[in-house]
């Protein structure tokens, strides 16, 4: 807990305050999934911070420490009437103290990447693109529900595409009844890809889609969107994966938002050609 002479209190949020983070994100137009808060919170409850003045929350930030070497941040919002007074910088520094020496990643507003680089020393990695479209998928007989697979098997495949092991998060992420998670299995029954679609405050959101090949990614996108045919859905693609961008364009999806993926120490070496859909702009 930290408090300065201006009576700004920075503290760990309680579990009951998690909906504040989600609601503020919704108001900012970020359209979180309706169960995102409970899934995120389970990973690192000590990384949820609020800035408070006069008993009122005026800022939020989540810094999730996945392990001893990697951290990811999101839900960084300062209430409009408190912007420009140093609240955000103090909250940011508090969160970075939580991250410690870990490599910290985040998806920031694309137009502000120069500010993040100058003030926080973050390194630009690539652009993520959010696409919006109308679901028109078809059932895919080669896909299986991930609930039929051992969690350890799914987590091991996920780890090949993410900078840290996150089985605790994955277990939560695939479990809500408003979520569909599917996997592709090779003939030897090893995982060749998996994807998740979840209900959000507007429509549905895809994330992640990790796949060995573009064809498997296409199958996953078709299978996931078949569950919400005719509804709005969003698909967040890393721009370096041209095949992923092509999947969105082929479906006449519209580019509606973009982020700058940035890191504090180094850009993790990941198989970008196998990362078709970002899991979450708030949690990596």
UniProtKB/TrEMBL annotation:
The molecular function GO annotations come to: acyltransferase activity, transferring groups other than amino-acyl groups
Q: Output the Gene3D superfamilies linked to this UniProt entry.
A: 3.40.630.30, 3.40.630.90
What PANTHER family does the annotation carry?
Answer: SLL0310 PROTEIN
Using the record's annotation, list all stretches that form the N-acetyltransferase domain: 8-156
Instruction: Identify this protein by name.
Output: GNAT family N-acetyltransferase
Q: Which residues cross the membrane?
A: none
InterPro entries the record matches: Acyl/Acetyltrans_Enzymes (IPR052729), Acyl_CoA_acyltransferase (IPR016181), GNAT_dom (IPR000182), YitH/HolE_GNAT (IPR041496)
